[in-house]
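User: tokens in, sequence out, please.
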């Protein structure tokens, strides 16, 4: 896209992936702004975020752990747009952005197949006890203990957006029976996705694997707490590749410690990174991965391309992938 210089300063304040400095994307960014600046590390706190962002007219946000609070946004008087290279925007105060006239965009669907694939991998790793058996063999041990299978079991998909839909396909392809829950079920969606919608309570009671694929909002925060964990089978596995805030982490840790459920596969945590000695790290029945569900070569490249597309289209007066449409132009 042939776009004239649109921004005085374009900032990437939060340690963007190295792939962004490749010649094609870098050239597109430099064509957009008089000055492009990015940093090799993530800011340590709010004051450092403000120091890096306060003079920017445009930002690319790549790390959900770097929070753009109302205080941060108010300290950026020239900021017109935040282009999020990723789907989740719960680290951005959207209400403040709206009030301040700042447009926020994200990159929907960029990692759909990759996150679903990762969720399935976590479910398989937990059921097959791959990590525990790997450690056992490395320590000179062996086992004739039984592992579990997923074939002909029931997969409960919580949330049927793009990633949830792909998870339904993968589960059915593996021979699982699939049920689902969403905030807005309809017979038409059930028929389209080839899935049975049930209540969350019924899903938790029936599913052998519960996989979370909803966004974090006031409607879904702590969606899985002590009561919900208590409804699950003792042989069930919980998989979360969405947002840590969907699950009461303390209650989940207790459920795993007490073998109330068989295991979990987690790609998201509170906080991130997970601190050394965290209770979850001491459990053998949980598979931990460092929020990498969508961090594949193709996934990251596409997210960054879409973020740049948002900056280009905003400059042309027609922003794409918009979450909040502001009016600082």
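Assistant: Sequence out:
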């Amino acid at each position: 896209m042939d776009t004239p210089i649109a921004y005085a300063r374009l900032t990437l304040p939060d340690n963007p992936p190295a792939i962004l400095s490749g010649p094609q994307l870098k050239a597109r960014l430099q064509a957009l702004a008089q000055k492009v600046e990015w940093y090799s590390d993530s800011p340590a706190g709010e004051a450092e975020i403000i120091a890096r962002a306060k003079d920017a007219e445009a930002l690319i946000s790549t790390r959900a752990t770097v929070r753009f609070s109302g205080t941060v946004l108010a300290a950026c008087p020239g900021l017109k747009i935040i282009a999020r290279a990723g789907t989740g925007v719960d680290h951005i105060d959207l209400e403040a952005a709206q009030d301040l006239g700042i447009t926020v965009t994200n990159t929907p669907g960029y990692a759909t197949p990759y996150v679903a694939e990762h969720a399935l991998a976590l479910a398989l790793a937990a059921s097959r006890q791959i990590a525990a058996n790997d450690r056992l063999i490395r320590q000179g041990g062996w086992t004739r203990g039984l592992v579990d299978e997923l074939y002909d079991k029931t997969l409960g998909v919580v949330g049927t957006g793009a990633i949830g839909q792909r998870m339904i396909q993968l589960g059915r392809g593996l021979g699982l029976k699939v049920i689902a829950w969403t905030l807005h079920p309809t017979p038409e969606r059930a028929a389209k996705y080839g899935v049975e919608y049930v209540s969350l309570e019924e899903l938790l009671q029936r599913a052998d694997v519960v996989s979370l694929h909803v966004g974090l909002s006031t409607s879904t925060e702590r969606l899985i707490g002590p009561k919900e964990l208590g409804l699950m089978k003792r042989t069930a596995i919980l998989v979360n590749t969405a947002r840590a805030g969907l699950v009461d982490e303390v209650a989940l840790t207790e459920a795993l410690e007490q073998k109330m459920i068989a295991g979990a596969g987690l790609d998201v945590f509170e906080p991130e990174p997970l601190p050394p000695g965290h209770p979850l790290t001491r459990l053998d029945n949980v598979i931990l991965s460092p929020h990498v569900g969508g961090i594949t070569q193709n996934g990251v490249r596409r997210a960054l391309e879409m973020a740049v597309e948002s900056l280009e289209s905003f400059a042309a007066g027609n922003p794409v992938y918009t979450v909040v449409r502001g009016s600082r132009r």
